[in-house]
Amino acid sequence: MSIVQRPLVIQSQLIRQYCPLQTRTRNAGISRRQLHQHHGLRTKTVTDEDIKRLASRPLHPLTLADLVKHGRPPLSAQALFSSANFTLSTLPTRLAHRIQSLRNLPFIVVSNPQINKIHNNYIHSLSTLLPWAEQEITTLEDEIKFTEVMADLVQTHANTISILARGFLEARKYISPREVTRFLDEHLRARIGTRLIAEQHIALHFSSQPHRELSPHDDPSSPSTSWIGVIDTKLRPASIVRHCEATVSELCELKYGVRPHLTINGEPEYAFAHVPVHLEYIITELLKNAFRATVERGMEREPIEVTIAPLPEDPVCEENENTQHAHVTNAGQGNVDVASKFFTGQDVADNASATLSETIRPLAHSTPGVTIRIRDRGGGISPENYEHIWDYSFTTFNEDQISNSISGGNRSSSGMDALNAISGAGGDGVNSLAGLGYGLPLGRAYAEYFGGGIAVQSMWGWGTDVYLSLRGVGMLE
C-alpha cells in the first residue's frame, strides 16, 4: 500500500514512531534505510545549480516568535498548514547553506569519510524537500506526508555532532583548531535552528485538532498543557537539574564508585518558558564537568551547589501584560543564528519588527528568564587550560586516549567511550564524564541561541563557578 493510500491515522502513527521528541522516548535503532522503506519518501536529484541558487538566498533569522506564531495547540487545520508552509519556506535554504559551508572546507578534510557522511546527509535531506519546493501545502494528506519528511530529517541528522567530532579528530593534521572552532560555531548554531524548525512542526502536528481527532489514543477534548510545540511555557529548571543529576550520578558511580551530593537553593519553584531539551543538554554537560572535577580532586563530600535565580522583571513586559498580543523581536531575543556570509545586518533590522499572532496572548506573569549557578570544589581550571575552554577541539585527553577513541579501542581499559559523551541532544548516548572538548562550547551555543550565555569563573586550587543565563520565550497565553 502506498503512502497516499494509507489511512491518516496510520500515517500519523508512523511519524510518531520516528519522532522521539513527541513520544518522549528514544528510538535509536532505526536506520535511514528502514525509515525510507516505511515512508516511501519522494526525492529529487540535487544539482550544483540547486545548491548555488538556494545558498545565494539570505537566511531567515529564526526567532522564538516564529516558533509560537501559529497559536497555542490544538491548532486548527489552517494554522497547521501555515506552520508547514513556513517550515517549507525556510529549510531548503538553510540546508543549502550548510552544504556550501562543508564544501568550503579544505578538500582533504571534506574527503574524510565522517565529514563526507555529514555532507551526504544534507544532500539527502535537501533531496526530500525539493519535490515540495514549488507547491503550497493545503490538505491534511499533504501535511502528513510533509511531516514524515520532517521526521526523516530529524532522524537523519541525529548523530551529526558525534560524527563531525570523529571526522575532525581524524583530520586534525590538516585543519587548525581555530579553523575547526570557527566552522563549528557557525555550523552547529545553524543546526540548532534547523532542528528546532523541523521538530516544532512535528510537535504542532501531533497537537493539532485534526490529528488529535484522528488518533484513537488522544482525547480531542483533553485540556491543553503548558507545551507549545517544543516549548514548555512552565518549565521548572530545578526539575531539569534533578533529572540530569540522576543521569550524571549514575555515570559517576559507574566510573569512580562514588557520587557527589547536589543541593539546589535560590528559587527552585521558579518556572519560565523555554526549550527543555536545550536546557537538559546544557545542564548535563555542566554537571559532568563539576562531578568529574569534584571526584578526581577527592572532594566528593563537598556538595555541588546549584542556585536558581530568576532574572529581574522586564519593565517592557510589565507594560504589555494587558495588551492583546505579545511583541518578541529577533534583536530582543538576542538570536545569533547568522550562519551565512550572505546575511546582513539590515536583514536583522527588517525582521526585528515581526510580532506574534494575535492568537498568542500574554501570560499572567512575564517570564524574562533565569540565571543558574553551578558551584563545585573541584580545584578549578588551570591557567593554561582556561584560555582554551571554548575551543571545540580542546580536550584534557592525551594523544593516546584520543587515538584510542578514534580507533574504537578497548573501552574497559579507560572505563569510557569519549565520543559518546559529546551530545545527548544530538541523539548519542551519554556514557562518560569526559568528552573531546565539545560539551562546553556546544552548551554555550545552545544558551546563546536565544539570548542567554555561559560564564565561567575559576579559582585555581579551589573550585569553579559556572553561570548559565537563559532568556525566556517572552509572553505567551
TrEMBL record:
Keywords: ATP-binding, Kinase, Mitochondrion, Nucleotide-binding, Phosphoprotein, Transferase
One of the record's GO cellular component terms: mitochondrial matrix
UniProt key word Amino-acid biosynthesis: no
GO molecular function, one term: pyruvate dehydrogenase (acetyl-transferring) kinase activity
Segments forming domain Histidine kinase/HSP90-like ATPase: 274-474
Organism superkingdom: Eukaryota
EC number, UniProt record: 2.7.11.-
Localization of this protein: Mitochondrion matrix
Gene Ontology biological process: regulation of glucose metabolic process
Entry similarity comment: Belongs to the PDK/BCKDK protein kinase family.
UniProt xrefs under PANTHER family: [3-METHYL-2-OXOBUTANOATE DEHYDROGENASE [LIPOAMIDE]] KINASE, MITOCHONDRIAL, PYRUVATE DEHYDROGENASE KINASE
Protein name per Swiss-Prot or TrEMBL: Protein-serine/threonine kinase
Lineage of producing organism: Eukaryota, Fungi, Dikarya, Ascomycota, Pezizomycotina
